[in-house]
Amino acid sequence: MTKATKQGDSGKRAADAGTDDANHVGEGGELHQTASGEHPPLTTNQGVAVSDDQNSLRAHPRGPTLLEDFILREKITHFDHERIPERIVHARGAAAHGYFELTQSLSKYTTAKVLTEVGVKTPVFTRFSTVAGGAGSVDTPRDVRGFAVKLYTKDGNWDLVGNNIPVFFIQDAIKFPDLVHAVKMEPDRGFPQSATAHDTFWDFISLTPEAMHMVMWIMSDRTIPRSLRMVEGFGVHSFRLVNAAGDSTFVKFHWRPKLGLQSTIWDEAVKIAGADPDFHRRDMFEAIAAGQYPEWDLAVQLFTEEQAERFEFDHLDATKLIPEEMVPLQVVGRMVLDRWPDNFFAETEQVAFCPSHLVPGLDFSNDPLLQGRLFSYLDTQLSRLGSPNFHNLPINAPKCPFANHQRDGHMQTGIPRGRVAYEPSSLQSDSPREAATHGFRSVPRIEQGERGRVRAASFADHYTQARLFYRSQTPYEQAHIASALVFELSKVDHVHVREAMVGHLRHIDEPLAKRVADGLGLEELPPAPASSRPVQDMAPSPALQIIGKMKDTLEGRSVGILITDGSDAKALAAVKEASVAAGASVKIVAPKVGGTKLSDGETVSADGQLAGTPSVLFDAVAILLSEDGAKRLSKEAAAVDFVRDAFGHLKAIGVDSGGRALQKAAGVPTDAAGVVAADDVTRFISAAKTRVWDREASVRTLA
Ligand code: HDE
Hints:
703 residues; Rossmann fold; binds CIS-heme D hydroxychlorin gamma-spirolactone 17R, 18S
């Protein structure tokens, strides 16, 4: 008996129709539904087959439900407990499986097998996240992206728990709860969700000068990425590589996306949030399903203690980066994500990353922020996952053998055998013992100095690198930073907070401060706060830009083609073919999703219905319309917005004669840069590969 339900005549009808999911009414009218096809039996958690999963046990057909119904009680009880606490930060995320492959051995510097065995593929699980919003928030707020990689190495699990920004807000972990309380929804009102644009965040930040470098990064378009496949990842802190002789070298870890860097434009990000709250996770899901596996290079910056002493900043301070122009990046491997999880909860939700998961051959630095993190993750996971045995969950368990004498606890799923649960022991030959030759060892170091709640004087310069970042940007990127600051501070009700922020900006870049003050309507430039450190002018670092790192390719990008009945079949085929050949994914948008009749009489189905598929979801668009279709769409707000937004978001627009009519209705100038004839597919593809930055001045008044 494979069908766990009664099957009447109508069940037979559905089976005859051969559909597995056809709903139909069962015996006795509309009282029981089932679908056809052979299936394994549905059982309780005790393995007892269930005969009826739709009716609870009743005293009589219209009578009360009986407490005796263990099937109902088990099902509802489990459901009642399906949610676990979400992560206090980084609650919303998406993850994928894949592998890391070493291409250059670092055996001179480390004994870690994952960094010395060239060509070996180490399994990984990588989770990307936003920081401030809850698990059900949207994918595209202005926010830092978490970039956490669990490498299941032969030496044990190594978690590289980083972000898409190489620096952080604070220098000492003791300030983390304050930072997070300030950025999360305000406690008295319960909003805003997932946004920095509110009073408590900027109040805290304006009183935290060490955050200024990070502020420049979060106000840049780095925090509104186009795709998770197009973000960089950074380990942030300095770590140590330790070789067989016990010598250590400092290292900073970087992930570099193969597709290059690309961001959205703020107005675009805002609209994507409404059009597709799952934009980033869907993008990664679809890319993996299409076999376009996201890929990153792993690069390292290596430097010695002596070199570090000559830096003008302290590399142990997480608000500082080491410019690549100063210590170049060496690519040592690549990470490919090629498998979406089978189950979101079991894997993406239950994965537990922890910066203290290091393997022999690596060690920590004294960065005080890192030191604080080493405590926090395990602690929070104990309450989030509810037991000290969460390392046994398949997603968290090492893929190399592991054994120790830890026992018992909630949800112990393993069955440890034997008498011996202690060490040293002599009673049992297979009982695990210390690995004196290859076990984890901390680098021996002499730590000297006066104990106290102090911060090193070398941490005191808060503006030099903020200036470095801002001045290294292209004018377009600088304008976006200024506008983001105006937008965010305009959402702050307290004038003194706005003024305090502009005061800080004066140390970073006086024209920036003036621009923001002007955008906020401040009549006078507020005073800069006292700073004992003169701000230094470091050599600009173009590596900090996004625009310069956007790749001249359509790979990984998407083209949307708007059509209606009567659209030219040949033009559609040509644009589609050229876009796919250039590496893009193509989606057809039409007023009706089911079928659009083209000029040649063929019917095509659309990937998206116009009202639910705006142009913000694409990197470039083509508008191919019949004369009649253009007339109708010119009166359709969604179609007019389709063109107007693509134009405002600096995207290439390919048009045929019908498309030109809609372009006119949208008020887009006929000679606008980046609006090209759709039949010139070569020009369309080349325009589609980039944003039309020259257009910006004509579509936006930036601060
Ligand atoms: Fe985290 N962070 N963090 N963080 N962090 C967490 O751990 C914390 C910091 C980062 O996809 C929490 O399991 C402290 C820097 C990522 O599951 C928590 C401090 C960087 C993720 C925690 C920091 C990060 C977290 C919340 C200051 C970049 C998501 C849930 C000392 C290098 C991992 C959890 C995932 C998650 C603490 C600062 C990255 C509370 C105390 C700097 C990517 O333990």
